[in-house]
């Protein structure tokens, strides 16, 4: 919705407020928000462009608003999707019924670099694999939300969701007070409850939880320290941990303390040099053996990447039917798999109108946006697709919905997506709202912070 468009019901009070608010006051609030975020230290890091890697994610003070009925349907769809993705993970590392039934091609799973044969036959506590999922949602019409991609490994952004709400309550309390908003501040408590609920069988007392970070040079380090602080648990690096007689301990000033659950923000490859990359200095020798022995829980589980690989994404609706016996509530975006001959032929003939993505790419990198590309760009991608077709998928260029956004020219529509966060332990919980990302450049469809995107507070109206 842009300000020149028909105003949807949930935005009625926002529109009135914007019409009454002089632009110089909006600009003052925008600058106050920037000062607040800089003072708190809410940054992310980009290490590919030189100069100071620490960047402030632009924050837009006009919220994205969802009616309760819209959210309730979206929440049901998220619950359904994460339940099916978790069942898929349990199956492909177990009996592989879906592969034997031919619903997902076996070679796309077992030959995928995200598949971890080391997980075969191991069932994590409560059968939970993806304890924290971030499902990227786009809206293409008034009635339907579409899933753009599933993030089942180490999804980031929840700290911005929480800080965005805090900023709105501090900077614009009157506007917030005009609406009955579903709260999001309980997320750290829910996350801690979820992590404790999947403590390993060997845990006899109250579980000890810690957040495992690769360190301060990681682009999401702010979030790691923020969540550890909010949950009241230790933030540890690989060097702070050791394995002794099959159990994991962290070094403390009071001596070694056993750790039962690690919310790890380190990729599989770097977790344990004895099992995965031997050159990793980020992980803990012996950690995976302790995990397999049921003496520590890793959240998310090792090997969850096979569930969010972009080449597996087109099969999620079939997973929902196969495991749950239900029709998908949330739709997939139509997707072409370049390894299929017919799909590849279509993609190569229509590069000028499609979005092409690497199956293992992220952050908005490794993409071709056809309508904005040059002939030279398309030629490069055509060669890449022909050389390694299994590495690419393509989707239509989506007419993403827009939200009113305060930019230099004033209030203008900008494209948005939404990443709700789903917690999965002994039960599945969906936080009302999520992180709205906004493409601040006019006409841009790329919302990633590393590509010039910003964020908004996401409001779910209770009435």
UniProtKB/TrEMBL annotation:
Top-level taxon of origin: Bacteria
Name of the protein described by the UniProt record: Circularly permuted ATP-grasp type 2 domain-containing protein
Domain named Circularly permuted ATP-grasp type: residues: 63-439
Pfam families per UniProt: CP_ATPgrasp_2 (PF14403)
Gene3D superfamilies, alphabetized: 3.30.1490.270, 3.40.50.11290
